[in-house]
Specification:
Structural class of chain B: mainly alpha
Number of domains of chain A: 1
Number of strands of chain B: 0
Strand content of chain A: under 5%
Number of helices of chain B: 7
Radius of gyration of chain A: 18 Å
Helix content of chain B: over 70%
Structural class of chain A: mainly alpha
Strand content of chain B: under 5%
Largest sheet of chain B: none
Number of helices of chain A: 9
Largest sheet of chain A: none
Oligomer: heterodimer
Order of helices and strands of chain B: HHHHHHH
Number of strands of chain A: 0
Distance between the termini of chain A: 31 Å
Shape of chain A: globular
């Protein structure tokens, strides 16, 4: 029976994530707005730090994840903006989908958007900041773990802020301090990969995975009461 | 302290109708005031400057007598917020929500004081107002996190919805505090030699007594502030709950006084 429950949660998650991706396919908001935004941030960093290759090269891991963080904010807002119009939240609650499934689906949707952004940013920093990626395994593992954490915490805080008039200004101050450990961990792991000193990088990667699991667990339990109120 | 669920009761805790003070809180307030005077004498005059060891703080140790107690009180405050949040989710009574809100607010004030005293200490010890010291950094993040909690409370109008969402956030935020703390600590320890270790000499005698006295006093100040802030929060919740009824009753009374025209308004008011 427990297996059946898990199966139905995963099926619901797939349905919700599929719905979000279909919406994206039809509206192309990520491709037409999120990607240009992320690349714009890279250009702005170069303006702020002087386009001196050395500084940009050294700061690449941090700038990369900062750009991801800002893009994630937009992705979360987008993910819940599509739910709050026309009383879709009520429809979602009435649909009989498991709230844990809705949470995992929303998080998976955000995560897939982020992975696309990260690939673009990866190409961006390689070309524009002149950094040559190394330690591919650690880079990919870090990106996956950090993205899972960002998406899980994002879906949780996104639904918390979703129903509010002030959601656009409230979400950053609620969510950014929470993911500060992710920014630290992902930056350190990337720095280790670039410097080919992957030993400490894997430790950070483990921390990212633990963070992601923790927020996935919190979201699975807390999403139902939060969805009721949004 | 009054039980959050029972509200103002008779005796020591009978709250004055025009304020948030009761006989009990006045007694506590007097004790706090007298203790503060004694504490200042102890901390500023009686206790000797720190001289033992290579990293002795000298006269600067006196800042620690304030810094450690306020830091301790802010952790206590956020613990109370988390506990009351959990209790709210379990019991669903307004009192726990008031307690969580009041404690978060007092906690934010203590956190600001912790940052300020830490920064002042840092300025004289390190020569800069801010260092990326793990504790200072994680306290700053905690400060923003609880400002966010208070901002969420202000953003939601419906009291039940606000209480529920704030309770969930209060619990999650408390889980976050150690995560942020350890990640920042780990981050700093990997990158630089521990040049900025907070001097933590073995303290004894009068210095230790002053510090412990300060910590107890910090808890008392917290309790006194909480008595008043909790009663204020409780009163606000009552006003919020009664506000609509009072407004309706006033409007009806007005309508009745107006006579005929008022009658139709009254009927409309009832239907809506």
């Amino acid at each position: 029976m427990a297996e059946g429950a898990v199966g139905s949660v995963l099926r619901d998650a797939r349905l919700v994530a599929g719905k979000d991706l279909r919406l994206e396919w039809r509206t192309r908001v990520t491709v037409s707005q999120l990607l240009p935004f992320a690349l714009l941030v890279l250009v702005l960093f170069a303006f702020a730090l002087d386009p001196d290759r050395r500084i940009l090269g050294e700061a690449t891991p941090g700038l990369f994840w900062l750009a991801v963080l800002f893009s994630t904010l937009l992705a979360i807002q987008r993910a819940f903006a599509v739910e709050t119009v026309d009383g879709v939240v009520d429809a979602l609650r009435l649909s009989g989908l498991d709230p844990a499934g809705v949470f995992l689906g929303k998080a998976a949707g955000i995560a897939l958007h982020l992975l696309v952004v990260e690939v673009a940013l990866g190409v961006g920093v390689t070309v524009m900041y002149g950094t040559s990626p190394s330690g591919p395994l650690l880079l990919v593992a870090t990106a996956l773990a950090a993205t899972a954490g960002l998406a899980a915490a994002g879906a949780l805080y996104g639904v918390l802020a979703a129903g509010l008039r002030v959601r656009d200004t409230l979400l950053p101050i609620l969510w950014l301090p929470v993911v500060a450990p992710l920014l630290i961990g992902a930056t350190q792991a990337f720095a280790a990969a670039y410097e080919q000193a992957s030993g400490s990088g894997w430790r950070w990667c483990g921390l990212l995975a633990a963070f992601a699991s923790l927020y996935a667990a919190i979201g699975i339990f807390a999403f139902e009461p939060l969805l009721e109120e949004s | 302290m009054t039980s959050p669920t029972s509200g103002p009761s008779a005796g020591l805790f009978a709250v004055h109708p025009d304020g948030t003070a009761s006989h009990g809180s006045r007694v506590l307030g007097s004790v706090v005031l007298a203790s503060t005077a004694l504490f200042l004498v102890l901390a500023l005059v009686s206790s000797p400057p720190d001289t033992g060891g290579a990293d002795a703080m000298g006269e600067l140790v006196r800042i620690m007598y304030v810094h450690v107690p306020v830091a301790n009180a802010c952790y206590l405050a956020f613990f109370v917020t988390a506990f009351a949040s959990g209790m709210y989710l379990w019991k669903r009574t307004e009192g726990w929500d008031c307690l969580a809100a009041a404690s978060a607010e007092v906690g934010v004030v203590f956190t600001a004081l912790t940052l300020a005293t830490g920064s002042i200490w840092g300025h004289t010890t390190w020569g800069t107002w801010w260092e990326w010291d793990p504790r200072l950094t994680s306290t700053a993040l905690m400060f923003v996190m609880y400002l966010g909690y208070l901002a969420l409370r202000r953003a939601i109008i419906d009291p039940v919805s606000r209480a529920k969402q704030a309770a969930i956030l209060g619990l999650i935020s408390f889980v976050n505090v150690p995560i942020v703390h350890y990640s920042v600590e780990w981050w700093r320890s990997l990158h630089q030699q521990p040049t900025l270790t907070r001097a933590d000499p073995t303290i004894d005698g009068l210095k230790l007594f002053t510090l412990l006295f300060g910590i107890v006093l910090g808890v008392l100040v917290y309790a006194w502030l909480m008595l008043h802030r909790f009663r204020m929060q409780w009163a606000e919740a009552q006003v919020e709950a009664k506000g609509l009824d009072v407004a309706l009753a006033e409007r009806r009374a007005e309508a009745r006084a107006d006579g005929g025209l008022g009658g139709s308004l009254d009927a409309g008011g009832v239907r809506s």
